[in-house]
Design brief:
This protein has helices at residues 17-26, 34-43, 51-67; strands spanning 10-13, 29-32. By secondary structure, it is mainly alpha-helical. The chain has one domain. It has a two-stranded parallel ribbon with strand order 1-2. The radius of gyration is 19 Å and the shape is elongated. The model has no long low-confidence stretch (mean pLDDT 86).
Length: 68
């Protein structure tokens, strides 16, 4: 109906092991989402390790929340 018979389907997911394993078992092509990787890299291994940056981020979030 939508003309999707000859299309190549690729799944873009986070890196959680259950999703990776499910895609592997289903035999589908899967790529990890770059945005998820960057988020973890910055928030967990970057800002998360620097208390001053983390406190500043909390203050900025508070200011944004006040205006929205």
């Amino acid at each position: 109906m939508f003309g999707l018979k000859d299309k190549h389907t690729v799944y873009v997911t986070d890196q959680s092991l259950n999703v990776v394993k499910a895609c592997r078992w289903a035999g589908v092509e899967r790529y990890g989402c770059v945005a998820h990787g960057l988020h973890i890299l910055i928030m967990v291994y970057g800002i998360g390790k620097c208390q001053k940056a983390y406190r500043m981020l909390d203050k900025v979030k508070g200011i944004i929340k006040m205006f929205t």
